[in-house]
Specification:
Layout (H helix, E strand, L loop, with lengths): L1 H29 L2 E8 L4 E11 L4 E3 L5 E7 L10 E3 L5 E6 L4 E7 L5 E10 L5 E7 L2 E6 L6 E7 L5 E3 L5 E2 L6 E6 L5 E6 L4 E7 L5 E3 L5 E2 L5 E6 L6 E6 L9 E7 L5 E3 L5 E2 L5 E6 L5 E6 L4 E7 L5 E8 L8 E6 L5 E6 L4 E8 L2 E4 L5 E2 L9 E3 L1
Antiparallel strand pairs: 1-2, 1-33, 2-3, 2-4, 5-6, 6-7, 7-8, 9-10, 10-11, 11-12, 11-13, 14-15, 15-16, 16-17, 16-18, 19-20, 20-21, 21-22, 21-23, 24-25, 25-26, 26-27, 28-29, 29-30, 30-31, 30-32
Length: about 375
């Protein structure tokens, strides 16, 4: 009998040990480092980049030493664009706009995630008030939105992180056209940009020398007022999606879908534009498999989810509101590399919100939002 009691007690203790070990393992897993998140703070005077450790459960913790000096000057206000912070395909360098000093900064991403300005890594943007950056391989284009220097200008990025202007690459646009985004398609053969002020979209083919050739008919009239955020499909380089942020009246926002021909011509897909049923869809992000599109509705605030059909047409799934919407003003959004978490910059609240992604469905994490450093007026996000 004593032997049976002892065996039963041992089994119970062993079970408890296994349970404690499993719980500790699960807890440790929740805090496993998965990558990093970087935010362009646009701080007045010296611009800074906020850096976070990204854990496997989606939560963020500030990286030691954050925020890091970008090298140029920030405007002390959001730059109202998509893509003001970008990472190279190798993950080696981070590029940031310094809108107040008309410069671009190149920072080295160190093994632990900290940032270090590349020597000689701050260069003129080729115009006035840079707002957006596009990168494909070593080719870089910058959108400048300021009066007296509104344009798209090209650079080459050296293996050592130095930007060199490409002679003859600058394409000027009229003052007041207000470029809001510049981006390459997946194979680097096309480049597009939104002109928020004139409700137009520019489209180019990209030559082997890095210079641009405007598509016949470019700039194209947008399908709504204030075309803003844009994204090429990550799985189909001939499909371009653009949010129309400034349509008049509540719940009138739309998202346009275009097919892009070999010469850069834009043609609407299906019944484009597709209703958003929200106000001011500004920023756009597409799942890595190309099946879902997320539009950030800054004025509501909420995030609309769409199913992307094979032909590029969109089907609205629904919208998800933020836990703490008051004054949030959500902006740029990026998915984690595994596609499981969507991070969104909140410029009004100076925070980063995080959503768990399940297909086209979103749910904000319990740990969200994470505060940004004092003085941050954020726009632009990178997740790696």
């Amino acid at each position: 009998m004593r032997l049976l009691i002892r065996m039963s007690l041992c089994a119970t203790l062993l079970g408890l040990a296994f349970a404690v070990t499993a719980a500790a393992s699960a807890n440790a897993s929740a805090f496993t480092l998965a990558g990093h998140v970087y935010i362009n703070d646009n701080t007045a005077g010296t611009n800074t980049i906020a850096a976070f450790s990204r854990h496997s459960d989606g939560r963020l913790t500030p990286l030691p030493g954050s925020p890091f000096a970008a090298g140029g000057a920030g405007p002390g206000a959001p730059v109202a664009s998509q893509g003001s912070l970008q990472v190279t395909g190798s993950g080696r360098y981070l590029l940031a706009v310094d809108a107040a000093s008309n410069q671009i900064s190149v920072l080295r991403i160190l093994p632990g995630g900290a940032l270090r300005l590349v020597p000689g890594g701050v260069v003129g943007s080729g115009g006035v008030h840079p707002v957006s950056i596009a990168i494909h391989g070593r080719l870089v284009y910058v959108a400048n939105a300021g009066v007296g220097g509104s344009d798209f200008t090209g650079f080459r990025l050296s293996p050592w992180g130095h930007l060199r202007p490409i002679p003859g690459s600058t394409v000027s646009v009229p003052d007041g056209s207000q470029p809001g985004d510049v981006l390459f398609n997946g194979d680097g053969t096309k480049l597009a940009g939104t002109l928020v002020g004139t409700s137009q979209i520019v489209s180019f083919t990209v030559g082997g020398d890095g210079r641009l050739t405007a598509a016949p008919g470019s700039p194209f009239t947008a399908q709504g007022l204030g075309p803003f955020g844009s994204e090429f499909s990550p799985t189909n380089p001939s499909q371009l999606f653009v949010s129309n942020a400034h349509n008049v009246g509540p719940d009138t926002g739309t998202v346009s879908a275009f097919s892009v021909s070999h010469d850069g011509d834009l043609n609407p897909i299906g019944a484009s534009p597709f209703a958003d049923l929200q106000t001011a869809p500004c920023w756009v992000e597409i799942s890595h498999d190309g099946r879902f599109l997320f539009a950030v509705n800054t004025a509501v605030p909420s995030i609309s989810s769409y199913l992307v059909r094979g032909d590029g047409s969109l089907k609205l799934i629904g919208s998800t509101t933020f836990k703490e919407p008051a004054g949030l003003a959500p902006e740029d959004a990026r998915l984690s590399p595994d596609g499981g978490t969507l991070y969104v910059v909140g410029s009004g609240g100076a925070v980063v919100t995080a959503f768990r992604v399940n297909g086209g469905n979103l749910s904000e994490l319990a740990s969200s939002p994470a505060p940004l450093p004092a003085g941050a007026t954020p726009s632009g996000i990178v997740v790696n």
